[in-house]
Amino acid sequence: MSAPPANRLALALAQLNPIVGDVSGNADKVRKARARAAADGADLMICPELFISGYPPEDLVLKPAFQAACRAAVESLARETADGGPAVAVGTPWVEDGKLYNAIALLDGGAISALRFKVDLPNYGVFDEKRIFTRGPMPGPVNFRGVRLGIPICEDIWGAEVVECLAETGAEILIVPNGSPYWRDKDEVRLNVAVARVTEHGLPLLYLNEVGGQDELVFDGASFGLHADHSVAFQLPGFRETVTTVHWSRAGDTWRCEKGPLAPLIEGDKADYAACMLGLRDYVNKNGFKGVVLGLSGGVDSALCAALAVDALGAGRVRCVMLPYRFTAQESLDDAAAAAKALGVKYDIVPIEPAITGLETTLKPLFAGKPRDVTEENLQARARGTILMAISNKFGLMVVTTGNKSEMSVGYATLYGDMNGGFNPIKDLYKTEVYRLARLRNGWKPDGALGPDGRVIPENILVRPPTAELREDQKDQDTLPPYDVLDQILYRLVEREEPIASIVTAGFDRDTVMKIDWMLNLAEYKRRQAAPGVKVTLKNFGRDRRYPITNAFRDPGVPPSQPDPSLLKPGAAPKGDAFDF
Predict the structure, then answer these.
(1) 425, 292 contact by CB (below 8 A)
(2) Cα 490 from chain centroid?
(3) Is 154 noted as a catalytic residue in this protein?
(4) Helix (H, G, I), strand (E, B) or coil at 253
(5) N or C: lower Cβ tally within 10 Å for the chain?
(6) What is the distance between the alpha carbons of residues 581 and 573, in angstroms, rounded to a whole number?
């Protein structure tokens, strides 16, 4: 006998921050959130995609012992729902008939009352789920206390097929658990996808996303709901945990939310800053570091990284070190000291002259008769890197590396020198964006930031021409085009994969574009050895843009010839679904 239709439903959204691999800790988070949901009178609490394992679990999820631990945790949580409190829908890996699925388990009445498996497995950008999981069957709705719930999982709503199946088989409400990582303007993209599914079938939709940093990815939360008329039913905040219960009632043939919260969202540069801060905080805390150390040079990159570190961890967990040499200007010393004072961090000055003298003395017999060149410049960067790593070892502090995306794109960085470090919060920010975020932080601080209010980056740092100070009167623009030009070219080459001919047609100097493209390709071996860092753009280095190091192709910079269809024999190309890679 089926349950009578309900007219009211209280749904708790557990926008939580899991740790990949911490199965027991993630299960305990579910328990604590469920207690909160019970106090709020919730009927059902929804948790994000793969919450029990943490997302993305990558190849960890292929270990049989890990699969078994996840299942045991879910079964334990299921038994606890016999207490009459809220049911729980939780994401977990699930093995069925020897196949591994990305699943949602509905736990109710002391049992696992339903399982649904993800159908559309993303395999682009940062995602590679097809190599790990088995595609689930097309799902029908779950009958929960008289309400037919459709539970498409994350990517299942990015196409029309899964939601169409749920609608045709009687779903009344769509509940979408997600592990959707942040990149710039992602909230608008998600909303547009959700609106499209709601418009097609006239079903209300609840979109639940996780929050927190996992290696290079940051999950921004920002969960939301839509009514059947695609008006916003509720909006949860971005970049922080919350367990929020929203009350829905049946109105005729559909459901509406009763006064759901409408939290303001931070967007644009503010969202990028919040993502960098959260990514750094979670990388340090989830990996058990006591704090961080970084070289504070008097430049904008290290100043922004220091501000992010203090906002993420508090001044007491941040140590800054100035490592001057004969080419370090007094202006740099003054600016670094002013930044450290404004942030309230421990600040040391460690001259590197003795280290450089020792290295040059050791190498003198080998270098006899050779002129001084970039080799000696790199010795400075590598001496600094060695000193910072020594401080890291001695005091248990993770080194924050401070190179921006412009430098990493063209290899304007020293391997085993200024590239040393455990994590880079500005790795996916171009130099012009670093300046924007530095100016932004001087007039704004995100919620949850632990640093001081007001100006924390001295104005002189923001107006001085950038320099590595590895030789007399050196400026970045001795080697590189102006950053406002360089960054536009790099954006077209990296994010948009534009041909050189197209970039030149847009008004950029051909020789400059050719040089930048050459440098971009040449620096791949450096980027492969760089520290991980927060992803904020559509295409970051590492998880998104994966180029071979050994690569002989170069764009000739001229418009490509038109394809010759006469060379393609009939039947040579596959038709329809003949090949599925």
Answers:
(1) no
(2) 20
(3) yes
(4) coil
(5) N
(6) 14
State pLDDT tens for residues 519-553.
Answer: 899 888 888 888 999 999 888 887 778 777 777 77
| pLDDT at position 518 over 80 | yes
* Helices within 158-236 (DSSP H only): 161-168, 186-201
DSSP string, 88-120: EEEEEEEEETTEEEEEEEEEETTEEEEEEE--S
d(CA 19, CA 286): 7
- Tell me if the pTM is above 0.85: yes
Q: In what order do the strands lie in the sheet containing 397-399? A: 346-349, 318-322, 291-295, 397-399
Using DSSP's 3-state secondary structure scheme, residue 334 falls into helix
Q: Mind giving me the DSSP string for 428-467?
A: T--HHHHHHHHHHHHH---TT--S-SS--S-HHHHHSPP-
Q: What is the pLDDT of residues 375-425, one digit of tens each?
A: 888 898 999 999 999 999 999 999 999 999 999 998 888 889 888 999 999
The partner residues of 115 in beta bridges, in order of sequence, read: 105
Would you mind telling me the total number of residues written for the chain in this entry?
A: 581
What stretch of H or E contains 32? helix 23-39
Sorted by sequence, the CB contacts under 8 Å of residue 224 that are 6+ apart come out as: 191, 194, 207, 232, 233, 234, 235, 236
- The phi, psi pair for 306, rounded to 5°, reads -65, -45
Catalytic residue among 47, 154, 305, 320: 154
Task: List, in sequence order, every beta strand (DSSP E) within 215-285.
Answer: 217-220, 224-226, 232-235, 242-251, 254-257
Q: Alpha-carbon distance 418 to 107, whole Å?
A: 50
Q: Which of 47, 49, 155, 165 is catalytic?
A: 49
Q: Among this protein's residues, is 286 annotated catalytic?
A: no
515 is a catalytic site residue: no
Residue from 178, 166, 237, 156 nearest 204 by CA: 166
Q: Cβ neighbours of residue 429 under 8 Å, at least 6 residues apart?
A: 272, 276, 404, 405, 437, 536
**Segments in 169-299 forming alpha helices (H):** 186-201, 268-286
User: Cα separation of 207 and 194, whole Å?
Assistant: 8
CB atoms within 10 A of CB 39: 13
Q: Which of the following is catalytic: 29, 70, 118, 526?
A: 118
Q: What is the number of alpha carbons within 13 Å of residue 202 lying toward its C-beta?
A: 4
The answer to whether the beta carbons of residues 179 and 149 sit under 8 Å apart is no
CB 417 within 8 A of CB 423: no
Name the 3-class secondary structure at 504. Answer: helix
